[in-house]
């Protein structure tokens, strides 16, 4: 029991441990002197994909190209670009792929709303299912004689009662014979 | 009747899912392939110095789009696929006569010079890129190759080595079409 408790505690603590380790690839020479601008660059770096690492932001990737884009983001910010202008610059060169958060537009509506649509369809399905069940409760048709017989057979009554019944019949016969 | 059809729903779902899996797991599909956003873009803004030690000029945006179709190839001496595509590129440039401009990406000048001395130099100009050039061109790694039309517009972009079948199927027809 104690062991189980320890294992459970470790499992619960796992996400905390994992999340507590900062994943940063930023190198000291990249950091800007202006802390406000640096924070903006850090925040923006988290939503820019490193194009050679599939699913890592440039903030956490130490690929050469990620470093290059980090430097570029900072340079453009120092030059007065807004966050959106920096993103637009990158999208013009690498496409929407460079954004970790897909933009909302006609070609991505299905991506954004698909799960919601599936949920709504599912809820409608469940609703209709239960409503139909309530509206038309299955009227129990009376069992036919044959079914009745089979049921009592399945319930195991015949095996126990038949000999007795037979006995009773015999007894009846017997008495009848005696009479 | 509709009740009966409802029983077919799982089968239908299975077929749809199986279709997706078939597509997703197909060996012909490269999940890492990413479409180029550069097609039809004008010449990127760049100005690359020559590689020190090579007596070949670098080049800049202004050198492209002067009425001539040009191929631009990103390469590096440390890049193995570049070595693989090198003979194909050399042949292509020789046979078609289309100028091939090279961008030497993140390389040591002496290593680049040695590499070209060993394998031959098919490039008519070579610019040295410390990294920013690649971002301007929307390049994610080496090798990558572009074809620009006479107006300097990017008409073709390939990520990865440009090898035989690809040259026959895509590059040569594109060059022929552009030069007409």
How much is the average pLDDT of chain A?
A: 81
Classify the secondary structure makeup of chain A into a structural class.
mainly alpha
Shape of chain B: elongated
Count of helical stretches of chain B: 6
Binned, the helix content of chain B reads: 25-40%
- Could you say which overall geometry of chain A the principal axes of the C-alpha atoms support? elongated
Produce the secondary structure layout.
The complex is a heterodimer of chains A (179) and B (180).
Chain A (H helix, E strand, L loop, with lengths): L1 H19 L14 H11 L18 H15 L4 H12 L14 H27 L9 H10 L2 H22 L1
Helix pairs in contact in A: 2-3
Chain B lengths: L1 H5 L2 H17 L21 E2 L10 E2 L9 E6 L4 H17 L3 E6 L3 H11 L5 E5 L2 H5 L7 E5 L5 E6 L4 H16 L1
Parallel strand pairs in B: 3-4, 4-5
Antiparallel strand pairs in B: 1-2, 3-6, 6-7
What can you see in these coordinates?
The complex is a heterodimer of chains A (179) and B (180). With 179 residues, chain A is mostly helical. Chain A folds into two domains: 95 residues, Helicase, Ruva Protein, domain 3, CATH 1.10.8; 32 residues. Chain A is built from seven helices and no strands. In chain A, 12% of the residues are buried. Chain B is an alpha/beta fold and 180 residues long. Chain B has a single domain, classed as 3-Layer(aba) Sandwich (Glutaredoxin), CATH 3.40.30. In chain B, 39% of the residues lie in helices and 18% in strands. Chain B contains six helices and seven strands, in the order ααβββαβαβαββα. In chain B, helix 4 links the parallel strand 4 and strand 5. The N and C termini of chain B lie far apart (63 Å). The mean pLDDT of chain B is 92.
């Amino acid at each position: 029991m104690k062991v189980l408790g320890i294992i459970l505690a470790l499992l619960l603590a796992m996400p905390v441990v994992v999340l507590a380790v900062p994943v940063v690839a930023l190198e000291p020479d990249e950091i800007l002197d202006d802390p406000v601008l640096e924070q903006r660059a850090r925040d923006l770096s988290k939503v820019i994909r490193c194009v050679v690492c599939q699913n890592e932001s440039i903030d956490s990737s130490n690929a050469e190209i990620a470093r290059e884009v980090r430097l570029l983001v900072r340079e453009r910010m120092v030059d007065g670009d807004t966050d959106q202008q920096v993103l637009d610059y990158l999208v013009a060169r690498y496409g929407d792929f460079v954004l970790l958060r897909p933009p909302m537009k006609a070609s991505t509506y299905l991506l954004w709303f698909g799960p919601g649509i599936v949920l709504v369809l599912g809820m409608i399905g469940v609703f209709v299912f239960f409503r139909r069940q309530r509206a038309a409760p299955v009227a129990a048709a009376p069992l036919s004689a044959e079914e009745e017989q089979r049921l009592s057979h399945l319930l195991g009554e015949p095996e126990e009662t038949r000999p007795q019944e037979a006995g009773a019949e015999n007894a009846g016969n017997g008495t009848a014979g005696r009479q | 009747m509709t009740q009966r059809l409802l029983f077919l729903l799982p089968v239908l779902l299975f077929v749809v899912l199986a279709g997706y899996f078939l597509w997703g797991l197909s060996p012909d599909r490269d999940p890492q392939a990413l479409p180029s956003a550069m097609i039809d873009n004008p010449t990127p803004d760049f100005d690359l110095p020559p590689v020190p030690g090579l007596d070949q000029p670098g080049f800049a945006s202004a050198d492209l789009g002067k009425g001539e179709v040009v191929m631009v190839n990103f390469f590096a001496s440390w890049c193995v696929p570049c070595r693989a595509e090198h003979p194909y590129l050399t042949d292509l440039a020789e046979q078609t006569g289309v100028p091939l401009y090279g961008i030497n990406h993140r390389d040591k000048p002496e290593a680049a010079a040695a590499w070209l001395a060993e394998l031959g130099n098919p490039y008519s100009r070579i610019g040295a890129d410390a990294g920013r050039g690649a971002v301007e061109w929307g390049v994610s790694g080496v090798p990558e190759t572009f074809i620009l039309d006479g107006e300097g517009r990017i008409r073709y972009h390939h990520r990865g080595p440009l090898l035989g079948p690809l040259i026959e199927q895509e590059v040569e027809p594109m060059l022929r079409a552009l030069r007409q």
